[in-house]
Amino acid sequence: MLGLAASLLLGLGVGWATRSHSDWVERVERLEEGGKPGVVKAETSKPGITDSRRSPATVLRLPTPRTPLDLNRASAVELERLPGVGPALAHRIVQYREQHGPFNDPSELRKVGGIGPKKYDAMRELVTAN
Hints:
Layout (H helix, E strand, L loop, with lengths): L1 H19 L1 H11 L7 E2 L17 E2 L8 E2 L5 H4 L7 H14 L16 H7 L3 E2 L2
Parallel strand pairs: 3-4
Antiparallel strand pairs: 1-2
């Protein structure tokens, strides 16, 4: 009975960790696939359809203060390159932009659910709103 209770608690803990820290899951999956933790591969538009202009294995560069990411043009995949932004948060940023129009200032990111002061401070110099 004790072993069953311990297994249940362990399963609940893993479930909580994967839901609340999706960026951890992505990093582990990338490492299991043999990728580097800081590199994100671009998605192709449709499986089986090739685009002669770009390779499906195109490596996207991480945003830096010298080359910030434009919040009004970035896709969800590109937004995931920001610190602390996983697929769910990237999707919320894109939804916010679609519902409220383009960002006038990067500080408007604070209005997106899931972006608090610490997370915004981590990405503030890596984003722009042009």
